[in-house]
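Ticket #4471: structure export looks truncated?
Reporter: QA, pipeline team
Priority: medium

Steps to reproduce: submit the single chain below to the structure queue and open the exported record.
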Amino acid sequence: MGAKGKKQWLIPDAFYPEVDNGSYVSHEAVCVLNTGEKDAHIDFTLYFEDREPRRGFHAVCGAERTHHVRLDKLKDEEGRGIERGVPYAILVESDVPVVVQYSRCDTTQSELSFMGLLAY
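Actual output as written to the record:
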């Protein structure tokens, strides 16, 4: 099949809700598909409305594999996670072509909600 996708992806509307609903946990994920024959080394840069970007977040998606990067578990090089309740955008950069999808599970209301979209 060979490598499909791009090396840069943008997700302009990311948000990790502050509230969980009982046993259901709010979370986000950057889902990566790597159809190529080499592992993808992925860097994430977070952009905010009122502060400087945050860098130093990394993940690896194996060759011919998928990797669902749970953003509520992702830590930067200093061990800091992503702050809850703050809107942000994500730049995803890979050293090989990949396809990126973003999803959010929002449990702040009893009805729950799920959103999934392909990045640009």
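Status: closed, not a bug. The export was complete when the record was re-opened. Leaving a note from the reviewer for reference: The chain has one domain: 6-118.
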